[in-house]
Specification:
By secondary structure, this protein is mainly α. The protein has a single domain, classed as Serine Threonine Protein Phosphatase 5, Tetratricopeptide repeat (Alpha Horseshoe), CATH 1.25.40. The chain contains 12 helices and 1 strand, in the order βαααααααααααα. The longest helix is centred in the C-terminal third of the chain and has 18 residues.
Length: 258
């Protein structure tokens, strides 16, 4: 695990996840709504990616059955946890509604179930949605601690032809996977590329801030507080209304106390 970033911080994505609220054409909005998700780190990408990809899949040009299968895999990836001893009732005593999705005891159990569904999906003839399904596998592999496989998966995705929004997700996912492995140099290079690619794209506005933010996080993790402060401040100076403002303000406050 990267020094300077706690396991809790590298845990769950609350930022990215919101992408998929309105379907493919609204995907760019997702990132800003759930921005906290990806910032959290590696495993967080599960919900994040899951939602994004799924809604990308919800296009009339895609087969209904393929879309339904991928949506189901996404629901499994975000299925509720019900550890041993937790009552199967709501606070008011009424039975928990059966939503048709298994309730898992652990994150590992849930990730394995979702991964199994995605692998079955990819074994079928769903070429149009292949990138989405592979992108959704990445965060599940990270949850299971299979970082090398996650890195290989993101690299495979990036080797193909992608729409910009999926390219950005895959690049950010790769950076997180490299970070989870502890290769902060490679992660920093990946996030720097994310910024370069975002600057060259009409859809890259949100990611320009994120790319610098990630580089600041990594500088902080490597003990370069001065560089981290400069990078955090750069985001605020260039975009005072950035959706990352609260996170950056908090990180700067923490750095001032060190």
């Amino acid at each position: 695990m990267a020094k300077g970033i706690s396991k809790k911080e590298l845990r769950q994505p609350d930022e990215f996840v919101s992408f998929w609220t309105h379907a493919a054409d609204k995907l760019g909005k997702f990132a800003s709504e759930r921005k906290r998700a990806l910032v959290a780190g590696g495993t967080m990408l599960i919900t994040v990616v899951a939602g994004t990809l799924i809604f990308t899949a919800v296009k009339e040009s895609h087969g209904k059955q393929a879309t339904a299968s991928l949506l189901h895999a996404e629901r499994v990836a975000n299925g509720p946890l019900r550890p041993e001893g937790v009552p199967a009732t709501n606070p008011d005593g009424t039975p928990v509604t059966d939503d048709g999705i298994p309730h898992f005891k652990t994150d590992k159990e849930r990730a394995e179930a979702a991964l199994k569904e995605l692998d079955a999906f990819l074994a079928g003839r769903h070429a149009d949605l292949g990138p989405e399904a592979r992108l959704e596998r990445g965060p599940l592999l990270l949850t299971l601690g299979r970082t090398d496989e996650a890195i290989a998966t993101y690299q495979q995705i990036l080797g193909g032809k992608l729409e910009d929004r999926l390219h950005f997700l895959a690049t950010e996912g790769l950076g997180y996977a490299q970070e989870a492995k502890g290769d902060l140099v490679a992660a920093a290079a990946t996030f720097a590329k994310l910024g370069t690619d975002a600057a060259a794209s009409k859809e890259g506005g949100f990611y320009k801030d994120r790319a610098v933010y990630h580089q600041a996080r990594l500088a902080e993790a490597r003990g370069n507080a001065g560089d981290a402060k400069k990078l955090y401040q750069e985001v605020l100076d260039k975009n005072p209304n950035t959706s990352l403002r609260a996170d950056i303000t908090n990180r700067l406050a923490v750095l001032e106390l060190k």
